[in-house]
Amino acid sequence: MNKENLLAYFSVLSSDWSILIKLFIVTIGVIMIAVAIYDRFVQRKNQLLINYPLVGRMRYLFYMLRNPMRQYFGDETFYNSFEKLDWINKVAAKKSPYLSFSPTKPYGNQKTLFKHANFVKEEDEVQSNFSVTFGRERREPYVSKSIIGRSAMSDGAISPEGTRAFAKGAFKGKFPINTGEGGLTSNFLTTLHCTDCNSAYLEMKEGTQFAKSIYRIMKFFTNKEVAGRIYRKMVVRQKDRGSFIFDRSKLVYFRIDWSKPLELYPTDVPAGLPDITFQMGSGLYGVRDNKGVFDAQRYQKVMRFCRMTEIKLAQGAKQTGGKLLAAKVSDDIAYYRGIPAHKDLISPNRFPYATDMDTFFDFISELQELSGKPVGFKIVISDKEDFELYAKAFKERREKGESIADFITIDGGDGGSATAPLEMMSKIGLPIRESLKLVTEILDTYGLKGEIKVIAAEKVLTPDDVVELLCYGADFVNIARGFMISAGCIRARECSGAGGRNCPVGLATMDEAKRSKYLVEQKSKHVANYHHELLHGVRSLLAVMGKKNVSELDMDDLIIR
User: Is the Cβ–Cβ distance between 479 and 148 less than 8 Å?
Assistant: First the structure.
């Protein structure tokens, strides 16, 4: 086809565009002149723009792009190496994670190395069943199906769609998921179906045949997520409509009716749910009454859907309680937490039932009795003397025949948080490895190591990170950052919602426009894939180290440089 035939075939190419181009250039020029005049002679808030009108705005453009673009042009030293981040993205998408030649961080710069066995194992000789038993003395001990869980991340800090993706991924991958201090919400129960429940404790909304027809038509022409949102608006008219779970097979929206009597609730965790650890923070969200006081009966209802309770006393990067800016406190979040909507939510600094050791441990015993399930707490370690106070209190209670905590979650001082003061990030408490070494030594000295499980949480990304923490004495590893990346996080550092800036992928925002485009089903598979490859990597390392079981790991298997 020659040039003449091409122009004849696509007549638009032979059109005279000169007038339109000139009009466009003139319009842009007028706008630029107007902005320059405004900067120089009108506005009196920015000194730079007075001196450098229009041109000075480039500074703020580049500044705006700095965080989202730093991962492409900056050195990812904070994450140890870029290859670790790349590994997560590859295994989450089921791509080959193998490297060629060498990583960007040289072997000689590694601070910790693993010992290679003289006679290695084959992978099929290494344990395939990674499980940990929490609370052997409880009426209902929890036996996890993995040594890895998703760390505490609240619904609200994470978007509803993101929470649903994590919950579905946890269910598919058979690993536990922690609610975060925002408490149990409908999005953690997204895998639940009406048939799994007794309708006596449910609030249900069903659409008309017309609404159902609209849903099916929209699902055919678009996708089930878009169709579901339209159907929800037709069926659930209240502001907190997002607090309802959608049963796609029945085309019914439902949620737990917490006002119903306790005897109507299931005695066993309903089938079809992931293993959920309920985290209780200083705000007591989800288990408090109208006055903000702990509600024992509400707690019992919540625990009919959860396996364990974790009380949050401290977190490495957020010592003053959780923070949720007004932009994230939607009507749904207000419903879940029992607080006013669209206002900044700053949790109290101190857990209300932790004024001293006796008060705190008595409260733990109360929760153990109310739920019949394991109860532990999350802390940050600073020195040997501080943690020894806990160990002494445990031993004294043991000698009196009283119950003690079933597990302790150790959060390192280099942990992450979506909303935290700069002065506290990476400045409070010991790093996780030093903390673990100290905790395991003290528990062992007081004869408590076998009774209290130790969960480690801080900047874990890849299988070698997991194995290293197990060598330091952890029984279980909680991961937040790695799971976030597997769920699509691009590390733009816009999680808090401050200044109107929102997570660009819809994972950590309540902005409707960005949330609506988050790929829940795809990311849930990625989350499950990531967990699967973590365990596979742990088995591979154990084989090379000549181990059959994670229980064989200890500090002697490490080369500390």
Answer: yes
Tell me the sheet residues that pair with 206.
Answer: 252
Distance CA 558, CA 252 (A): 54
Specify the pLDDT at position 8.
60
Q: What angle do CA 357, 360, 365 make, to 5 degrees?
A: 120
Pairwise CA distance, residues 234 & 255, whole Å: 17
Strands 375-379 and 148-150: unpaired
Residue whose token pair is 């229009």: 54
Work out the angle between the directed axes of helices 384-399 and 432-445 (0-180°, nearest 10): 30
- pTM: predicted TM-score of the whole model, two decimal places: 0.89
| pLDDT per residue as tens digits for the range 95-114 | 988 877 766 666 556 788 99
Per-residue pLDDT reduced to its tens digit, 147-173: 999 999 999 899 999 999 999 999 999
User: Pairing between strand 476-479 and 407-411?
Assistant: unpaired
Q: Which pair of structure tokens corresponds to residue 45?
A: 């808030």
534 closest CA partner among 163, 158, 117, 97: 97
C-beta of residue 322 within 8 angstroms of C-beta of residue 283: yes
- CA dist list (Å): 429 to 175, 338, 368, 425: 28, 32, 28, 10
Amino acid at 534: L
Which residues are 560's β-sheet partners?
Answer: 112
Each residue's pLDDT tens digit, 468-505: 999 999 999 999 999 999 999 888 778 877 777 788 88
Q: Give yes or no for residue 442 having a pLDDT over 60.
A: yes
